[in-house]
Amino acid sequence: MSIRAERERSRSPLIGAAELAEFGDLSATTPHTEAELAALIGLLTVARSRIETVAIGHSRDADSLAAAEAFAAAWEARGKKVLASVDWPEAAASWLRPARRLTVQAPDAWVMAAAPLGFAQLARRLRHSTDWDPAGTFAFASLRDSRLPALTGPDTLHGLRGATADGAIWHVRHRWVMS
């Protein structure tokens, strides 16, 4: 491995203040809808799905907490298991603790209910410091923001899928959010 590649690999994944300023306000969330919750459950329970266990991640705002709790109740009502429910602040020193808590039990999938800014920071830490796979991650509509893949960096979120408020499906393909 070259010195430059090693330096890039070990560099902190935190998003700098100057970079954040370019993207504007990314702290908004909205209440989840029943159609959104149903679509999200549908994504995880498609035919031949082997997803039994999930780890749920959420911001600390009321909308994200309510969405995470609603998902956990619906998931457990199907006889499935929630291994962890992990929250994080919108501003933190490194996001390493929540990243490890989300991945330590090796869930079959991750479910995210969050504001884009905190999730962007967490996603960068997850990719940098854990075995997290965005293709095994499902999200509520608040993360369907076209600025998110650009903020997190190349392919950090490639494969992330989610539901819109009206029950449609979206996904991240490299740097694009597609519906």
Give your account of this protein's structure.
The protein is α/β, with parallel strands linked by helices. 39% of the residues lie in helices and 19% in strands. It is built from 7 helices and 7 strands, in the order H-H-H-E-H-E-H-E-H-E-H-E-E-E. The protein has helices at 3-10, 17-23, 34-44, 62-77, 96-103, 116-129, 148-152; strands at residues 53-59, 81-88, 109-113, 137-139, 161-163, 169-173, 176-178. A 7-stranded mixed beta sheet has the order 2-1-3-4-5-6-7, with helices on both faces. Strand 4, helix 7 (148-152) and strand 5 (161-163) form a beta-alpha-beta unit. Helix 5 packs across helix 6. The radius of gyration is 16 Å and the shape is globular. Mean pLDDT is 88; it is low at 1-10.
Main attributes of the structure:
179 residues; alpha/beta; 7-stranded mixed sheet; 7 helices; 7 strands; globular; disordered N terminus
Largest sheet: 7 strands, mixed
Mean pLDDT figure: 88
Number of strands: 7
Strand order of the largest sheet: 2-1-3-4-5-6-7
SSE succession: HHHEHEHEHEHEEE
Fraction of residues in helix:
25-40%
State the shape. globular
The percent range for strand residues is 15-25%
Structural class: alpha/beta
Q: What gyration radius follows from the Cα positions, in whole Å?
A: 16 Å
Write the layout of secondary structure elements.
Layout: H1 3-10, H2 17-23, H3 34-44, E1 53-59, H4 62-77, E2 81-88, H5 96-103, E3 109-113, H6 116-129, E4 137-139, H7 148-152, E5 161-163, E6 169-173, E7 176-178
Parallel strand pairs: 1-2, 1-3, 3-4, 4-5
Antiparallel strand pairs: 5-6, 6-7
